[in-house]
Design a protein that fits this description.
By secondary structure, the chain is mainly alpha-helical. It has a domain at 63-164: Orthogonal Bundle (Cytochrome Bc1 Complex, Chain D, domain 2). It has 10 helices and no strands.
Length: 225
């Protein structure tokens, strides 16, 4: 009976060891490893090693490349809360006729949040761009439930459409790429230069003595003492 028990215990122990070894080997084989280098670069996505953020496109360039018809289609996301026709009624949100260029929280008859009323300023293209990107970040605590438009092309198209509905303000001028990147270049040029490397072995880095820098007249005076 003891021999049989020992045999069973031995098989159980051997099975446990085999299972443990299989678990270790399979874990090593199937472990996920991030590639040293991405196979291709996805615009706007950084690798885990970091890197420069995608360049911000100037508002004028965004507007110049925008498609108003796309903006009108995007506005369909807004009609559940807003009207845009002249004289249209307020809904969950205010009527948006001639919004561009008007002061914030200024449409008559709509109960704006304190957050937006205290924000101040005017609905410029820059302000609209920030608002449409992230309303909660633009004025924390406002009533807007829309999360925002993350795509700058969609924001530009929507702003172009909004501007055509009663505002018709001049669009910001596009900025040439060289001018848009000037600030980046100036910032890099302003960084202090760093030494190219440590002094060469055996180089004399001590401060020269006074005698080494004396002129001939001073040396002659010293010789008369």
């Amino acid at each position: 009976m003891d021999a049989r028990s020992n045999t069973i215990a031995g098989w159980v122990l051997a099975g446990g060891i085999a299972a443990l070894g299989l678990s270790i080997v399979s874990g090593m084989y199937f472990a996920g490893h991030e590639p040293e280098k991405q196979g291709f670069v996805i615009p706007g996505v950084e690798s885990s090693e970091g890197g420069a953020a995608a360049a911000v496109v100037p508002i004028g360039n965004m507007m110049a490349a925008a498609d108003m018809s796309k903006g009108e289609a995007i506005f369909k996301k807004c009609v559940a809360c807003h009207t845009i026709a002249q004289g249209g009624a307020n809904g969950i949100g205010p009527n948006l006729w001639a919004t561009v260029g008007k002061p914030l929280a200024s449409h008559a008859g709509f109960a704006y949040s304190d957050a937006l009323k205290s924000k101040g300023g005017t609905w410029t293209f820059e302000a609209l761009n920030e608002w449409l990107a992230n309303p909660k970040k633009f004025a924390p605590g406002n009533k807007m439930t829309f999360a925002g438009l993350g795509n700058p092309e969609e924001r530009a198209a929507l702003m172009l459409y909004l501007n055509s509905q009663g505002s018709n303000l001049p669009l910001p001028s596009p900025v040439e790429a060289a001018v848009a990147n000037a600030a980046v270049a100036e910032g890099a040029a302003a960084e202090p230069a760093t030494p190219e490397g440590p002094p060469a072995p055996g180089a004399d880095t001590s401060t020269p003595t006074t005698n080494a820098t004396q002129g001939p007249a001073q040396a002659a005076t010293d010789n008369t003492k």
